[in-house]
# Entry
Amino acid sequence: QVQLVESGGGLVQPGGSLRLSCAASGSMFSIYAMGWYRQAPGKQRELVASITSGGSTNYADSVRGRCTISRDNVKNMVYLHLNSLRPEDTAVYYCNANGPVRAWGQGTQVTVSS
# Structure
């Protein structure tokens, strides 16, 4: 069983930066592929970025070049650095674990507004 808790969301001005954190509890974290998804009001949940157990990363076209996903298998943490934030990045951001089981966090709100 894996439990995920996100943190780091908030209100940020356009052009600003943010780091989201996801703390994972449970065993065998290192074998899980981890991802960050987001869901804006009235829209479907979409993948933002993912990282495999081996550290390979993948990014949505909408954030590529502005976003970095990373993981710390010692601390059981996954991070999402977002730069050059835009109003369209406003959404609830969810952490996801994909492995022997699939798990979601409760989400953290990111609002980009002046």
Observations:
- Residues 1 and 26 are 6 Å apart (CA to CA).
- DSSP finds no helices and eleven strands in the chain.
- The first strand starts at residue 3 and ends at 7.
